């Protein structure tokens, strides 16, 4: 199970990288906007900074919605750094762009996936990753983790190489459920990753160990 952090915030990326368990980063235009990163030059510089901080894959999303624009953007983004994975929405033009970029040896992350049919087309086009958005499905009274389970089963059955990247993770329990469903990757907010560490018995146990040590050793 690979861990990506889902943010464009450099401090959070550094903190997650510092844990030593981070495998990559996913960004999207909303996350970039949240950090106030605007203008092509600044956006490109920001992606480069992220690649310098982490060792793994960094998803950078295209803005175009037609094939020519998507592949031009995708080729430019991929040329920035070997760690860049081009993030493309699962629309008709996007599937064509994923196929084109895959044939050129450029890795892709097919995003905004909400159904197994979309995931099937992403895999057929050769996407490196498929990103089902589980939190947004849950928000719409649909079981997001169940979609992860269905896609994992389909990819295993047909032996697709595309990795299932569980996205739109909102909390720690989502991560645990995605592990159980067999996701290859979970992209998470820092709070959800740190939440994996939390257990009151750990805190109580450590408090007692230290208290007993200090009773004798001052
Ligand atoms: C995925 O790569 C997206 O960046 C992200 O997970 C979307 O999450 P949200 O639904 O919390 O915006």
What key attributes describe this structure?
single chain; alpha/beta; 56% helix; binds erythose-4-phosphate; globular; eight-stranded parallel barrel; 218 residues
Task: Give an overview of the whole structure.
The chain is an alpha/beta fold and 218 residues long. Helices cover 56% and strands 17% of the residues. It has eleven helices and eight strands. The protein has helices at residues 10-19, 29-34, 40-53, 67-80, 92-103, 116-125, 134-139, 144-158, 172-181, 190-195, 200-217, and strands at residues 2-6, 24-26, 57-61, 84-89, 108-113, 129-132, 163-166, 185-188. The protein has an eight-stranded parallel beta barrel, surrounded by seven helices. Helix 5 packs parallel to helix 6 (116-125) and helix 8 (144-158) runs parallel beside helix 9 (172-181). The mean pLDDT is 98. Residues 6, 26, 28, 31, 111, 131, 133, 135-136, 167-168, 187 line the site of erythose-4-phosphate. Erythose-4-phosphate (E4P) is lined by residues 6, 26, 28, 31, 111, 131, 133, 135-136, 167-168, 187.
